[in-house]
Fold this protein.
Amino acid sequence: MHKIFVKPVSSILLGHLYEHLVCTCIGDVFRQRKMYEYVDYHVRGRTFQSGLVYVDVALYNNDAEHLVAEALTRVAINEESIQRAYNELKAELEMPFGGEGYDAVRDALLKLNEQPWQSVEQLGVIDTKRTRKKAGELYVAEGKPVHSHKLKLSVQLDQQIAVKDRHLLPLFHELAWLLLDNVSRAVSWKYGYFYASDKTAYTSKLAAHTAVFSVGEAPVDLEDVITLCREVVGGMHEDGAFERFVKQLKHVSYSDERNSLRFDAEKNYELTSVFVGEKGWRQLATQRNLEGLLSSIQVQVQFGCQKIVR
């Protein structure tokens, strides 16, 4: 199930900043209810240059449906949240920004937040060409591009396990995405880094999933990032996320698109070269196999020439 909401904006850059605030708030609300990315929901935001903020929340948990509308009424607009979203936006666009000052940006965001969201179920037609565009309280300024540095966060499987138990690679693939989705979201929320891309490597020497963040002027403390990763995984254990994950994998269907998690069978096979059918998932997706993989996984954080592995 998807819940999609849109809101027209006259200032594109301000709308983009607002989109980051909204997606952060949705994640906060779900996390407070002990729900997690990949296994319970997935949020995706986009700001179109024609003047539209678009938020799409995929729901994999029946208890999550009402939370989206609640989250849209609880968007935090304060100095801390604005600064974090600003850091993300600056790292994402790598452009110099100008503006009319914090108070003007905050007031404009508050005004935008008061405008009602429109759900696609109830929406007729919006022609954003009719919305008068303006530079607004935040705009791209003249000057050199702002080059971001890259932070890499990798979930790596012990190579002996990857070779000896190749049949578990598809389960590792799904588990790695579950971990990366939630750890990466937490890193973005806390530090204001932008999740720029990801890459996957399955070779004779390495089985790893890596998230790449663009880091602007925000400081980087690798030990602090590792500590945050541990806290996220610990919370997932306490809140039953891994148990729900195993249960959902056991009920994966190739004929019914209404799977209760973000599952891409083709991508899984292309990366692992191990194809698993529905019966195979019922055999592979066990708590014992999951715990065995978790105990064989290392997390690596790299920033420039600095690197930490735990």
